[in-house]
Amino acid sequence: MAYPVEIPDPKLRTGALLAVSLLPLIWAVMAFIMDSEADNVYIDSLVYVNTDPVESLIRLPGAGVGTAKNIIDYRQSSGKQRAFENIDDLCEVKGIAEKKAQTMAPYISFE
Known about the structure:
With 111 residues, this protein is mainly α. It has two domains: 11-39; 47-109, AF1531-like domain (DNA polymerase, domain 1). The protein is built from five helices and two strands. It has a two-stranded parallel ribbon with strand order 1-2. It is rod-shaped, with a radius of gyration of 23 Å. The chain starts with 9 loop residues before the first helix and ends with a strand.
């Protein structure tokens, strides 16, 4: 097998091959962790979807900055003081389907 850089020690060569062959696995694990980062949220208090800022809304499971901004946009465009009365209202927000809304439900207050 030809190597771009000659590695004289067979043990080092085996270690280098192992390291290079593990890179795709490491990248896949990192991508999974980053993708599910929003699901690993620890919420110590309820999130008030009718009043809280982006910084609070992104703490909801499955919500990133985009979802938080969509919640605020919907809230502002509704013209009502309380845009969200229940979980079904939250499903009207772009990017929030019923499954995501149900995941967020235990952490939300509609007050």
